[in-house]
Amino acid sequence: MNITDSEQKILSILWEEGSLSTMEIYKKLEGETNWSKQAVISFLRRMETKGIVKYVEKGRAKLYSATITKDVVAKKQRGFLLNTFYQGKIGLMISEMVSEKSLSDGELKELHEILDNLYKEGKE
Predict the structure, then answer these.
(1) b/e per residue 74-103 (b: at least 16 CB within 10 A)
(2) Predicted pLDDT at 119
(3) Same domain, 23 and 75
(4) In this predicted model, what pLDDT tens digit does every residue of 29-73 receive, in sequence order?
(5) Range of the domain at 62
(6) Which of 6, 53, 72, 93 makes an SS bond possible with 47, Cβ 3.0 to 4.6 Å?
(7) What does residue 54 show for φ and ψ, rounded to 5 degrees?
(8) What is the CATH classification number for the domain harbouring 33?
């Protein structure tokens, strides 16, 4: 399942805030996007069809909430990125990040420690 940038913005708000009405979502996005209220409604309908949000009716309002966790989306997006751009090879991705100076010295040290610990755990 591919999550678009627009859907990601809405999901991020729902993960942080919980259940919100269309108008509350629209207001939270107002300063960040130039979306109309109708655009937010369209995104929410598409997301509902995908099964990544659901709603309950409360009076005249629909309160939307995410049906998928941030961790699940992150895992799917990492897999998509890895398979689409790096042929499923994490070593290739990290190698390119290092050669592009995308990782700071601190991040490289942290990565080294993680790999060392994984290696040691595998030996036990």
Answers:
(1) eeeeeeeeeeeeeeeeeeebbeeeeeeeee
(2) 84
(3) no
(4) 998 899 999 999 999 999 999 999 999 999 999 999 999 999 999
(5) 5-66
(6) 53
(7) -140, 165
(8) 1.10.10.10
User: Is 63 within 8 Å of 21 (Cβ atoms)?
Assistant: yes
Instruction: Tell me how far apart the alpha carbons of residues 118 and 110 are, in angstroms, rounded to a whole number.
Output: 12
Sequence-ordered list of residues with C-beta below 8 angstroms from that of 14, at least 6 positions apart, any chain: 20, 25, 53, 64, 65, 66
Cα–Cα separations (whole angstroms), residue 25 to 11, 51, 79, 100: 10, 18, 28, 37
Q: Which tokens is 106 given? A: 């601190």
